[in-house]
TrEMBL record:
Residues 196-339 form the VOC domain. It comes from the Bacteria. This is VOC domain-containing protein. SUPFAM superfamilies: Glyoxalase/Bleomycin resistance protein/Dihydroxybiphenyl dioxygenase. It comes from Sandaracinobacteroides saxicola. Keywords: Signal. It holds the Pfam family Glyoxalase. Residues 1-16 form the signal peptide. The lineage of its organism: Bacteria, Pseudomonadati, Pseudomonadota, Alphaproteobacteria, Sphingomonadales.
Amino acid sequence: MIRLLALLLTAAPLLAATPPDPLAPKSSAADALTSPLAAVTHLTGDPASAARFYGTAMGMNRLDFRMDAGFARAMGLRGRPLVMRFTRPVDGVAVDVVAVDSDGPNARPAWQARLPGVLGLGFPSAGNEALDARVRATGFASNAGLTSITLPCGEGCSYRVGEVHYRAPDGVLALGIDRGSMKPVGVIDVDAGVGGPAYASIVVSDAGQAKRLLGEVLGFELRRETELETSGPSGGLGLPRGTRFAFQQWYAPGAVSGYVIVMAYRGGGGLPGVAKLGPPTRGIALLSVATRDLDAIAARATAAGMRTEAKAYAKPAIGPVRALWLRTADGFPIEVYRADPEAD
């Protein structure tokens, strides 16, 4: 007994040193009306570079499809373009890469973080030094090398997260996220040292509208809401020192990955969009979640005063679906879909 007590006393400081995880689920997946973030669509003017980034640098698996003509029309694209779908074997958000004209509009030229729309994707990392060597070997540059950010985890509690921001094609930022002793934001492949995308981050001009869309309509739960301030242009976002922004993290109930980060700049820190958000503009053009009840989503959207766009088409790797497109205040589309068993 004395020996056991001594062991417990020795271990106590180590146990106390691990902060509570603010991103742990607050409810059960049984409460979820929608899935976690299922896929993002990346429209690219350089499909070879995009394939090299997701496939070689980030170690994702590729499967090719031809886009359904109806889906292509909904996306404002011609014909039935090739869809390169990148996934991880266990989990992670799928990335559907589709080639568009290289001289077409780009939602985020020069990786400008102050513009509205999806800023980037976050990848769980087992160690950013090794990830950095891997990604740089494939020819992709980092915005600022290895950086870190301090995040709150409760009253008087904080923890540090290692970050590295890569310049993926078409103005997309890809972050390696190393949470140290905290649980990773997604499953990490042991051999690659990195997992599939765990989240998408989106810049909005109206955080309140985004909160209604994600919370009241989709039923996501808000696990973190805070305000952050940049340390200067040497940081991963390349923003002036003291730039402040609201920061929210939204999860489907019960989910541990596939979440959405919302950022809204304070004090005029944001910029107006330079191109129409969503397809056929280059960059991340669509976020997609599945639902078990599309009618419930429509009713919630109406109650929240939001317009919906009803669509029907076939999705890569899924088949025929019925879908509703919802939009942020800046016009970025979020697709909510349900498999349609009655379709041919």
